Amino acid sequence: MQALAVLDLSCNMLSGSIPPILGNLTYTEKLYLHGNKLTGFIPPELGNMTKLHYLELNDNHLSGRIPPELGKLTDLFDLNVANNNLEGPIPDNLGSCKSLNSLNVHGNKLTGTIPGALKSLESMTYLNLSSNNLQGPIPIELSRIGNLDTLDISNNNIIGSIPSSLGDLEHLLKLRLQNNKLSGDVSSLVNCLSLSLLNVSYNKLVGVIPTSNNFSRFPPDSFIGNPDLCGNWLNSPCHVNHPTERAVNHVKNMRNKLINVIHHAATLSKAAILGIALGGLVILLMILLAACRPYNPSPFPDGSLDKPVSFSPPKLVILHMNMALHVYEDIMRMTENLSEKYIIGYGASSTVYKCVLKNCKPVAIKRLYSHYPQCLKEFETELETVGSIKHRNLVSLQGYSLSPYGHLLFYDYMENGSLWDLLHGNLITNSLILSKTANNAVMETVDPDITATCNDLGAVKKVYQLALLCTKRQPSDRPTMHEVTRVLGSLMPSTTADATTISSKQQEGTLPPPSLPCAKVPASCYIDEYANLKTPHLVNCPSMSTSDAQLFLKFGEVISQNSE
């Protein structure tokens, strides 16, 4: 039995106490006793199970204290004692469980304060201390748990303000602080950009609910029960009373002042008294008119339309469950703001990075350069095409994001390498192709069917060499696909060929069937454009425009080095 790896007795009708002899299972990694009717204390002997990773004792009737001996379980990953009758403080020794990822003590009768020793649990992502009798402030040490994504301290007697250091928890997704006695404001949570759930209701919080960053996503229920907390969420504008109420107060004040003026002006002339009275009536009417106007708050409380719009922080749109529970800030942290050391490839219009997600699965991030003229169009096209294609041999689009670093596209990561490695790696195939090009033996690699039906094999060679340009090592040396299309168009045969000559040759049987576009190409169409690239005005092919000649000039010198 000592070699038992897993002991699962959960969700039965077991009663009685937990036998201390279980502490002898020194090789057991998982102990599941939850969902029974177990009573008595948690035996301290469980601290001898040094290989234990999972200890699930929740949903029983256990009493007593959490034994400090559990702090010896340095490999413990998950500790769950929720929904029991445990009392006393949370032992500081739990801070020694360096591998602890989840701690749940919800629904007990625990007292004392939240131990600052929990700061040592840097791997913890889930901490639930709710529905106990814990007191004291929220320790600032909790902000040291950098990977924490869920923090629940609700339904206790926690006092004091919300520590500003909680804003440093950049991975925090859920924060529940409701039904405590917290005071102060909530401005310290503005920096928690990843928060998707926040509840601070029924406390003693004061001040203004922020309108910036992520606070716009939280419902009014997140803030109710705080009489001195104000903001648009609670229909309680801060520092401003309703216009009607202000007007009524002004009317009362003006009326009293007017009576005092009239009372003390008995010695004045009748004309002076009449002027004062008329002036007071005019002011009174103006105030009443203002009070009767409907209250229509401005839809732009922070400024007018003329002011620049402040954009919200970048958001990650997830299209695949592989990237669930990730936000834009996670990606930036994992890649150190798209550092160069994560680059696995780059091209003329984009750079590709490798990013390992929280689930240890890698993804490829394609960043389109924002200064590239066709960037937005290319981004939309790729979203539309790749996002709709589903095939086992094609990488799938897992998400996208618009960010200051450029437009980001997230793909499956190909473990077998990239096309770049196949083209430019130390491979025999690559060397063979380049050597044949250098030795003027290109046609040996061309399909024999083409050589049998095409008269102008020079055009085939030129297209072949143009294709090699697209595989140059430096992106700046490669033509864009738009340029390649235009150059290929300039190589198309002329449509002004002598129809009589073609017809006569067909009758004589000297002209092969026009199975390929290059079956008949006028010689003038291929005036050695490669030799005349530096003087594009000499290129007089009917199908070639001046701009096409300029395109040849741009990257034709590389072709001419391998041409006849």
TrEMBL record:
<dbReference type="InterPro" id="IPR000719">
    <property type="entry name" value="Prot_kinase_dom"/>
</dbReference>
<protein>
    <recommendedName>
        <fullName>Protein kinase domain-containing protein</fullName>
    </recommendedName>
</protein>
<dbReference type="InterPro" id="IPR001611">
    <property type="entry name" value="Leu-rich_rpt"/>
</dbReference>
<keyword id="KW-0675">Receptor</keyword>
<dbReference type="InterPro" id="IPR011009">
    <property type="entry name" value="Kinase-like_dom_sf"/>
</dbReference>
<dbReference type="GO" id="GO:0004672">
    <property type="term" value="F:protein kinase activity"/>
</dbReference>
<keyword id="KW-0732">Signal</keyword>
<keyword id="KW-1133">Transmembrane helix</keyword>
<dbReference type="InterPro" id="IPR017441">
    <property type="entry name" value="Protein_kinase_ATP_BS"/>
</dbReference>
<dbReference type="InterPro" id="IPR032675">
    <property type="entry name" value="LRR_dom_sf"/>
</dbReference>
<dbReference type="Pfam" id="PF00560">
    <property type="entry name" value="LRR_1"/>
</dbReference>
<dbReference type="Pfam" id="PF13855">
    <property type="entry name" value="LRR_8"/>
</dbReference>
<feature type="domain" description="Protein kinase">
    <location>
        <begin position="341"/>
        <end position="434"/>
    </location>
</feature>
<dbReference type="Pfam" id="PF00069">
    <property type="entry name" value="Pkinase"/>
</dbReference>
<keyword id="KW-0812">Transmembrane</keyword>
<keyword id="KW-0325">Glycoprotein</keyword>
<dbReference type="GO" id="GO:0005886">
    <property type="term" value="C:plasma membrane"/>
</dbReference>
<dbReference type="GO" id="GO:0005524">
    <property type="term" value="F:ATP binding"/>
</dbReference>
<keyword id="KW-0547">Nucleotide-binding</keyword>
<keyword id="KW-0433">Leucine-rich repeat</keyword>
<feature type="binding site">
    <location>
        <position position="366"/>
    </location>
    <ligand>
        <name>ATP</name>
    </ligand>
</feature>
<keyword id="KW-0067">ATP-binding</keyword>
<keyword id="KW-0472">Membrane</keyword>
<comment type="similarity">
    <text>Belongs to the RLP family.</text>
</comment>
<dbReference type="InterPro" id="IPR051716">
    <property type="entry name" value="Plant_RL_S/T_kinase"/>
</dbReference>
<keyword id="KW-0677">Repeat</keyword>
